[in-house]
Write a structure and sequence with these properties.
- The structure is a single chain.
- The protein is α/β, with parallel strands linked by helices.
- The chain has 5 helices and 5 strands, in the order αββαβαβαβα.
- About 45% of the residues lie in helices and about 15% in strands.
Length: about 140
């Protein structure tokens, strides 16, 4: 998990809840947490990639807010021979093409996910109300 803000933390918790071995990396040292396997690292620093062992990775989720950091991470992973899946959260549709060109396998429009989430909560609420009215 690259980027441990709100999106990265939610994804980390999802993966951990599914029993996956997961680690997080963030450029904010205040977000490190050894118990949760969250470590400091500046993915925009080329030196970071020279010391990273990617041999056990099967997938990488890019949850950093900046397009450039996602591009750097993707290029460095692919340059190091990473063949696994790279999934990137994006804020705007026009971010998808350069990420795919750099080697990202899939992009996910984050606000679309938020819209689906709020719609699901509204639907659940409506279903409960409908059940109560029918009783």
């Amino acid at each position: 998990m690259l980027g441990m803000g709100r999106t990265g933390n939610a994804a980390y918790d999802f993966f951990a809840g599914k029993g996956l071995a997961v680690a997080g990396i963030d450029s904010d040292p205040n977000k490190t947490d050894a118990q949760r396997q969250v470590f400091y690292g500046d993915i925009e620093d080329v030196g970071f990639w020279h010391h990273l062992d990617i041999s056990d990775l099967v997938a990488v989720t890019l949850a950093t807010p900046e397009l450039e950091s996602k591009l750097i991470a993707t290029r460095e992973l692919r340059k190091a021979g990473f063949k696994g899946h790279i999934i990137a959260g994006i804020h705007f549709n026009d971010e998808a093409a350069p990420l795919h060109d750099a080697g990202v396998d899939q992009t996910y429009l984050l606000m679309a996910g938020a819209g689906i989430g709020i719609a699901e909560k509204t639907w659940e609420s409506l279903q409960q109300t409908t059940l109560q009215i029918r009783r």
